Amino acid sequence: MATEEERESVEAEDGPGTGATIVGIVLLLAVAIGLALLVKDLYPEDLDAKEDPGFVDTIFDNKVVVLFARLLLVSGALVLAFGGVFIIASTVVRMKNKDWLRRAGPFEVSERAVTEIEDQIQFWRTAALEGQEEIEDLRQQLEESDELIEQLHLALDDG
């Protein structure tokens, strides 16, 4: 007989996999139905006949050609939409990771300029830390001087 722990581990293993499969099937079914409705709505019901058709009118006088032209336009719009979302998302991720743009088309920030700026930043950071240490030393000396002056002042008052 299986213990209760073994049954729980088997249920835990089956649970998420089954749920994910069901969600995947539902999403796949929704996409398939959406595509079928899109193609149905894109298919032209009737085409107007022209009295004096030109070259383009002759090409688009076929329902299948009109359907595929419409599908091409819709797919182009989808590609542009997904491309825009990808560009925005990748820009946000790069900004979050502090990956800054150094090159854009013909414009480029030279590595030498970046290195010089980083060296200057490091120099001023080191100078600030040294200055902070000197300030602490001077503050300590001032406190010691204040204590000495206080002791001398008390000695003069007593004497």
In the predicted model, the low-confidence regions spanning at least 5 consecutive residues are none
Beta-strand content estimate: under 5%
For the biggest sheet, the summary is:
2 strands, antiparallel
> What is the overall silhouette?
elongated
Spell out the helices and strands N to C.
HHHEEH
Q: Give the tally of structural domains.
A: 3
Oligomer: single chain
Strand order of the largest sheet: 1-2
Average pLDDT taken over every residue: 84
Structural class: mainly alpha
Tell how many strands the DSSP assignment holds: 2
Give the N-terminus to C-terminus distance in angstroms: 99 Å
Give helix % range. Answer: over 70%
- What integer value in Å does the Rg equal? 38 Å
Compute the number of helices: 4
Structure explained in plain terms:
- This protein is mostly helical.
- The chain folds into three domains: 1-42; 45-100, no CATH class; 110-159.
- It has helices spanning 4-42, 55-59, 63-96, 111-158; strands at residues 103-104, 107-108.
- The protein is elongated and about 125 Å long.
- The chain starts with a helix and ends with a helix.
